[in-house]
Amino acid sequence: MTSFVLTPLTATLGVRVTGVDMAALAGPDPHGETVAALRDLVLRHKVVLLPDQVLDADGHVAVARRFGDVTPGSAVFPGMDPAHPEIRVFDSRRWLGRQDMWHTDMPYMPTPTSLSVLYVRIGSPGSGPLRWASTEAAYDRLDERTRRRIRDLRAVHHTPDLDRFVRAFGPGEWDGPPVTEVRPVDHPVVRRHPETGRLGLYVNPWSTRSVVGLDARAGTRLLERLFSVLTAPAYQCVVSPEPGSLLLTDTRATLHHADHVDGALRIVHRVSVAGTRPVGPDGGAP
Question: Model confidence over 16-44: pLDDT tens digits?
Answer without folding.
Answer: 999 999 999 887 766 788 999 999 999 99
